[in-house]
Amino acid sequence: MTARSTRRTTAARSRLAAVGSLAVAGALILTGCGDQTDKDNGSAQTNSAPLFDKLPKKIQDAGVIKAGTNAEYAPMEFQEGGKIVGVDPDIAEALGKKLGVEFQFTSGNFDGLITALNSGRYDVAMSSITDNKQRQEGLDDKGKKLGPGVDFVDYFVAGTAVYVQKGNPKKVNSIEDLCGQTAAVQRGTTYEKALQTQSKACTDDGKKKITIESFENDTEAQTRVKSGGAVAGVNDYPVAVDLARKADGGNAFEVVGEQVDAGPFGIAVSKDNKELTAALEAAVNAIIEDGTYKKILEKWGAETGAIDKAAINGGK
């Protein structure tokens, strides 16, 4: 979503600071295109893309931006026909045309993306990651320093949503109704944090806590809700809406209540790579201005997440 709503400690369509071991799956897609031309004898490259000159020389020379993602969050990023598709890959393709390079996506565990980015495996992480201060500063849930943090180029807005079995047998109408119930969620996301925060609010109000079942991937959480093992699941709003529309032909789930704690999704970039951050900000603004951005969101039914202008580290 998530944010994957890293929601994102707010959700949107939100997810938490990525830590832990990295298990990279072998899913790969090239998006974007440029007319980059190498001259003889390894001399400088020429490129007519409007923002090519803003990129770091290392990326100009490589001709690609390596992007880590977790391709399990339709419509934001998911696998179809052996390719990674969705809102984020389409936005990346449009950015690539402005920058004159290709985005090369690799899918791995969500909670390892930022760690992999800071280790140099990726140039960016783009996976519905909620931009928040915790991730910017590299902190865990308790404020302990885990790493250097990252910078974000914000390109979308989403919040946390609750989804239940079709027909809503337990009559859940909001996240507050989950007190004393079991809820399923993907581990390491901001909507896992949203459930933890709500569970504390339940006990502070004299009610029973929420039993939170956290899974390595969102598919497992969905299965738990579908089977009735969990009363509800929590996810990024656009992901939950897409799930309700498509799972079992629209007969498996429904979204209840409104999205809450809306916040920005950002492209994560190493704090040591300010030049790339600035180039991406310029590219996001360029596709907003020329209308490409709007068309991409309309294609995937994600218009509610549109922004008017890119921002750097706009999350709270």
UniProtKB/TrEMBL annotation:
Q: Which UniProt keywords apply?
A: Signal
Source domain of life: Bacteria
Q: Pfam families per the record?
A: SBP_bac_3 (PF00497)
Q: PROSITE patterns in the record, alphabetically?
A: PROKAR_LIPOPROTEIN (PS51257)
Q: Which residues form the Solute-binding protein family 3/N-terminal domain?
A: 64-304
Which segment of the chain is annotated as a signal peptide?
A: 1-23
- Protein name per its UniProtKB record: AtrA protein
Top-level taxonomy:
Bacteria, Bacillati, Actinomycetota, Actinomycetes, Kitasatosporales
